[in-house]
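SLC26A/SulP transporter domain-containing protein (Synaphobranchus kaupii), 476 aa
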Amino acid sequence: MSASVAVYRNIYTEDRFKQAYGTGDKADEGERLRDKLFRRCRCSQPAFLHLLKERVPIFNWLPKYRFKKWIFGDMVAGLTVGILHIPQGMAFALLTSVAPIYGLYTSFFPVVLYMLFGTGRHVSTGTFAVVSLMTGSVVEQLVPVGLNASSAEAAEAEAQRIGVASAVAFLSGIMMICMFGLQLGFLSTYLSEPIVKAFTSAAAFHVTVSQLQSMLGLRLTRYTGPFSLFKTLASVLENLPHTNLAEFLISLVCLSVLVPMKEVNTRFRQRLRTPVPVEILTVIIATGVAYGSSLDTRYDVQIVGHIPAGFPQPRLPALQTLPEVAGDTVAITFVGYAVSVSLAMIYADKHSYSIRPNQELLAHGISNTVSSLFTCFPSSATLATTNILESAGGFTQLSGLFTSLVVLVVLLLIGPLFYFLPKAVLACINVTSLRQMFLQFQDLPDLWRISKMDFVSVCLSHTCACQPFVPLSDPI
């Protein structure tokens, strides 16, 4: 019995064949390809909304915000951190070798931008001592100022300095955005917590040594380059006989207040609803005493000077310096990102939510790039304020709104009142803000017992953090 096979196919006329398969003309093939690509690239409304929520997370978490449950905690935490940002912003500006007002700017713009783009609910951004000191080394190298410079020369140098610092922030932001485009957020997986701790604690030594001259009232040149730590220390010891006794006494009084009160805030953090804002109280009292006693004219005490009120005018950074700062900016970028993403991951694990490292790159990249257009220097997440934000009861990124409002009030109204603030007070705030970094040395014995390899890595990190990134200027 033979099997029969039947083949059924459509019968095409010439017109129907051309409609289904085209004419074979290259122009028609190109048109079909364009139509196909257009259909694939065309974004539907749900896809656009999904992309918007992914790239601007505030549109994702704000509609789900539990107002009655979270608003009080976010408000208290945000106001507390905002009050702390004022003295720390001005103090860390001195580490960057720029005027204190630029520290206030850097305490405002990055906070607002991270609130929009960041995924860490308990991360506080702004000025950070390590990043500020690294940036200050670049600024000092490119725009040195002599101790006997005239007022006109000092003003010109000040404008150039913030231009260089803003250029570092601009380039750092561009680098982070490029890393986001390459999806390099996975690098955070390889960040060792002991290495990050070692680097920041080693940098604490450099910050402390750099502030000795301000605490003692010495007018010394800031050293950059290899072994600047030892050169600065030797210079301070050599000039000890020239110590300004008034500024030395101011430093002793401030340290005797700041150190015990910080210990109280730490010991009783569970009982205190918010930590005692000892830094801002010290700033206010010191400013009043300096004004009433005319310390600047009677005892030659260095004061902050004029702090302009108002919002900064947008302007381009010193883009012509980008080739000169590129190498150091790579180091600053990786240090800032390492600290920021490490803090975000620590508090995300503690409160059982997740962050997106790639989105963190975009958030800090946009933050630094946009902020640089408003005369800000590089910013990152900060150890002290992040810890306070979490301990004060913050729940979401909305706490950044209240933080920025506090800084905004100071920028618009209160800033000029700090004219008579002694710089020695800011130096003491810088040193005491590093308390947590110094305490990290207590982990070394446990680390030796757990992993000798990690212990060796930490020691090497301490050594490397004290040296410049070859072959560039000293960043720490």
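The two ends are 93 Å apart (CA to CA). Residues 466-476 have pLDDT under 50 and may be disordered. ok done for today
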